[in-house]
Design goal:
mainly beta; Immunoglobulin-like; 1 helix; disulfide bond; Ig-like_dom; Ig-like_fold; CD80_C2-set
């Protein structure tokens, strides 16, 4: 039988609450609560609940995007990795503060889930893998890759926001965010120098004046003759 090195914290315990101290991973398991009635019936009720002792990290997840600037229509890919924990954490992706809902489209592979998501027509693919963390025995890390085919409407003022949110029940919540700039082609402006425009106008007026003057002289000569 496994002997656990735990102690009862009396001042935080009462007839309905038991507080345990110095719990370890091996403390996880089923706990039973037994309530018995007084004599002469001695009726007894037993309830069972499962306890899970978790290892919560202090660090935030790591987020890395393949590019910092992308053209609309290209595929953006990013990777999110959580620090070691037990059990493995859950990763949620948010695009411009919108949660990407996933739909499983093929059978699970051991320690690997692959999802396909569609949110308002956004073509998204999410892949998640869980790895054993060899550096710290007993811990696990979650790694998720995210890819989306960008569209012009995904960029707000020339950028889109991609966030990776890692959670472990209600005990841990941390996120990382990346801003991706829109690499859109810019219109080229053709500048015409003011002097050139004025020169063209001046030459035109000069030619018209010269023609008028020439015609006037011809008219005078014809009248004299």
């Amino acid at each position: 039988m496994l002997k656990l090195n735990i102690s009862l914290q009396i001042w935080k315990s009462n007839s309905s609450v038991v507080t345990l101290m110095s719990v370890e991973r091996d403390t996880s398991g089923e706990f039973k609560c037994e309530v018995s009635a007084d004599a002469p019936l001695f009726h007894t009720e037993i309830r069972v609940a499962r306890l899970l002792v978790v290892d919560v990290p202090e660090d935030a997840p790591a987020l890395k995007a393949e590019v910092q600037k992308i053209a609309p229509g290209a595929t953006l890919r990013a990777n999110c990795t959580t620090p070691g924990s037990y059990p493995a954490m859950n990763i949620t992706w948010l695009l411009n503060d919108k949660k990407m809902h996933s739909r499983r489209f093929r059978n699970d592979v051991e320690f690997e889930d692959i999802y396909d998501a569609s949110d308002n027509g956004v073509d998204v693919q999410i892949e998640k893998s869980i790895f054993r963390f060899d550096a710290l025995p007993g811990l696990e890390t979650t790694q998720s890759t995210f890819s989306v085919k960008t569209r012009p409407d995904l960029f707000d003022k020339g950028k889109l926001r991609l966030r990776c949110l890692a959670t472990l029940f209600t005990l841990y919540e941390a996120s990382r965010e990346a801003e991706i700039q829109e690499d859109a082609p810019k219109l080229a402006l053709v500048m015409v120098h003011k002097d050139q425009r004025s020169k063209g106008t001046y030459n035109f007026r000069r030619d018209v004046t010269t023609l008028f003057f020439t015609l006037s002289i011809l008219s005078i000569i014809l009248l004299i003759n």
